[in-house]
Please model this.
Amino acid sequence: MCPHQREIIVDAFRAAGMAIFGHTAAATNIESSKEFAKKLMVKYDIPTSCYQSFTDYKEALAFVSARPFPAVLKYDGLAAGKGVVIAADLAEADAALKDMLLDAHFGHGKVVVEDYLEGPEFSFMCFVNGSQVVPMPLSQDHKRAYDGDRGPNTGGMGAYTGLPFISEEDKAYAFQNILQKTADAMVSEGLPLSGVLYGGLMKTRDGIKVIEFNARFGDPETEVVLPLLESDIYEMFYAVATGAKLPTPVWSSERTLGIVLASKGYPGDYEKGFVIEGLDQVNCKVYHMGTKADEQGRILTAGGRVMIAVAKAPTLPEALEKANAEVDKIQCENLFHRRDIARKAFGARVIDGKVLSAEIKEDVRARVSEAAAQYGRVPCLAVILVGDNPASQSYVKGKIKACEVCGIESRLITLSAEVSREDLLAQIAALNADAAVDGILVQLPLPKHIDEDEVIDAIAIEKDVDGFHPLNVARLNLSRPCILPCTPKGIIRMLKSAGVKLSGAKAVVVGRSNIVGKPVAKLLLDENATVTIAHSRTRDLAAVTREADVLVAAVGRMGTITADMVKPGAVVIDVGVNRNPETGKLCGDVDYAGVSAVASAITPVPGGVGPMTIAMLMENTLECFINRNK
Ligand code: NDP
Model:
């Protein structure tokens, strides 16, 4: 309901002596007149951005020079919209003021000076009756149309409760110094509030400040806030409407997260009338905002923002996962939605192995072409695949594809799972002797009847692109130059590229295999980290992992590392590659949704360590090629 309608209804009800929830026309000025709200805040010392208007150049300059920079200068006249300058210093402000007020560049008008505010915005709604103020849970809206806060501004594409960036102290401060103070100020002005006061607030470097007030429930915030109310809202409405003592509402401690489904094209032009299916499958609240039913009872789109699905869960990552899953059940060819509501607020930084490995492969490609020009041929990697293990087939496919990207020649040798030990060793001996082959990779694991160690030992040391040969391992342990094993090398590269400080950091590696756990521990030690290795016999694994600033999980068991095992702010590297038996999807050893709410940075699975292992294989192949040609 817009303020205009409410003015009429509330005043009319009051005049007739009837109870109604909502502010009087005069009190809604706090929303409808920015000038009124600003003056009120200045008069009662309620924290907000500074805002002052000038027609005189000298007065404006004196005011700006006494305020912090950057300053926002807005020409408030016919050129409104064009005449906005964000002045970084006094010289820039002076030039703009001269332009706007002395040279009257846009005609004669006034200049409004505002502080430049930066920080996350959030919404704080309260039930208010005169000086009685009852807070609701905080929420945050997402205004931009697309993921990553890109695209045009909208009426709101989603919202959530449980803001990780606002502490209890912040909330208490905002309640006392903003919401309560404003309610009291309105009483002092003879305009008591009697409904919802919505504070659009920002947490700036200089404290929490008011951006705007609304005299009503906010959308889409209300859709995520009210589902947390466990007591009867009627009691609250009735108490506000009758001027009785406000009850203390009971709120759930869970988190809610709402995703808006909007018509394609919104907030610009869009078409209506598309059938929406799957609503009966959805297992969360769905509020309709722009739909209509046709004669057959089908639900059709009938607006820009069409509906909002609101999921409830104990933590934000779980709420996001659930909301995304529920929204996926809604089918309509003309709807779109964001998938990252609250992601920025709770999310650990994702250390993206795909992006980094693509950069590394690009670099290898350039170096391969230089080396090829120098030595008259391109490097060649021989890959031996034994048997038909689907995971191994897929890894080998990825490696051959990477060779194509890097300009490295590849030779794929596929052998049956029944291949004899002798035949496999003979194949390796032939590749060792082949001068045109620079690297030999045997995809592990091998069938049980073949001794993996014997096969690895058989590869010529100068062609050991995996770095598993005992001589390479010995050199690594003695900190001598060697071909580093791909996965551990990739992990260190990721950590460094993400700017993680390793020197002096406490690292914990879970898993002690010769392929991942032990070599990564050695490389971390070389970076001056202190390292603890945990394994299947470690007693109280959680107590060990909770000490880690950098936690590497290389176990091969889904769900090994949960949120309660991770120190807040830790960097988590998930090496494990497992298949979730329920969903069939790939996952790591780390409970990604839970841990990413605690960690400061995390690698995803898939798309984390895996692509880096392949990129390092390409580097190692080039290194072997160069070493052999030297
Ligand atoms: P291994 O099976 O050789 O080693 C697993 C390690 O985990 C062992 O040291 C084992 O301890 C330890 N472990 C097992 N259960 C527990 C537990 N409950 N608590 C603590 N430690 C435990 O595996 P890998 O090192 O070869 O591989 C590990 C994972 O990494 C796998 O999922 C694999 O697929 C993946 N991987 C991923 C790569 C990539 O590029 N992303 C590359 C290589 C591997 P113990 O020694 O006591 O038995």
In short: Residues 487, 510-513, 515-517, 534-538, 541, 554-557, 560, 575-578, 609-610, 613 surround NDP (CB under 6 Å). The first helix runs from residue 3 to 15. The longest strand covers residues 194-204.
